[in-house]
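Lecture 7, part 2: worked example. A protein chain together with glyoxylic acid.
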Amino acid sequence: MPRPKVFVARRIPDEGLSAIAAACDVDVWPDRLPPPPDALRDRVRDCDGLVSLLTDRVDAALLDAAPRLKVVSNFAVGFNNVDVPACTQRGVCVGNTPGVLTDATADIAVTLLLNAARRIAESAADAKAGRWLTWEPLGWLGQDLVGRTLGIVGMGRIGFATAKRLHHGWGMKVIYTKRTPSAEAEQQLGARRVELDELLAQSDYVSVHADLNPTTKGLFGAAQFKQMKRTAVFVNTSRGPLVDQPALAEALRSGTIFAAGLDVTDPEPLPPEHELYALPNCVIAPHVASATIDTRNAMARLCANNLLAGVRGEPLPHWVNPDAAAARRK
Ligand code: GLV
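Predicted complex, written out as structure tokens:
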């Protein structure tokens, strides 16, 4: 039997790549930048499997150009880059990498929260630029954390891990939004489920962990920032398009909110001349939440397991669309 053919849209850690290469004929996109859509289409044309990244758009046109494709294994927990209904319709399985990046992502949410609250990026830049003139009683004053209220928008795995750190470490009170109550958050963190309006009005810190879908796109706009406290810190480690960026920039410029920490933007990369970079109360990281050696290795292993199960016709260990099972491409 011929070995399955697989396209891997970027170099991923060897722990995953070597497992795939042991069982499949692998073509790896060698560049640092993603394959342009035309190149992606050409490379998957006769493939059985695709390892995609969040920068690769997997849509109906791509699937139709690759009639043998059985599995799309996304090297990410988020899969808004993949048209899942189009995959399901065509019997193409979709896998993702949940769980293994929860702690790394929660660590970055807390890092950004602390950084923005205590003005670290701003004061460090001032120090380096010679603006550290003396110890100033009124210099670089930030916000306290202990005992403050944390609002988690989207109490899933990552929201919970973030809340757990801030509740146990800093004694924060936790309120949250979620479609259904989280017994774990309520029992372990004393968290209270509220409507978004209440969360925005009550929280000293708002941390976003919801996935991107048509109901969450643009969830944070001018009206939402106005509902927040003037001392509030806003953190986003989910997806950039949840936020109306011009509205966020205006809220930061006008003092409607105190500061923001972002690991995700729209677009990515955010061009260097973007107005958000010029705001001292906005700290921006280049989508690095899962970027630790161990986490990326674990993601690669999971991604390989999904891919291999997909080309073999087995159930995917982390299967986004198990409803594709009945119609799986042979
Ligand atoms: C990263 O953003 C991911 O979804 O894994």
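The chain has a mean pLDDT of 98. Residues 102-284 form a domain with the Rossmann fold fold (CATH 3.40.50.720). Keep this in mind for problem set question 3.
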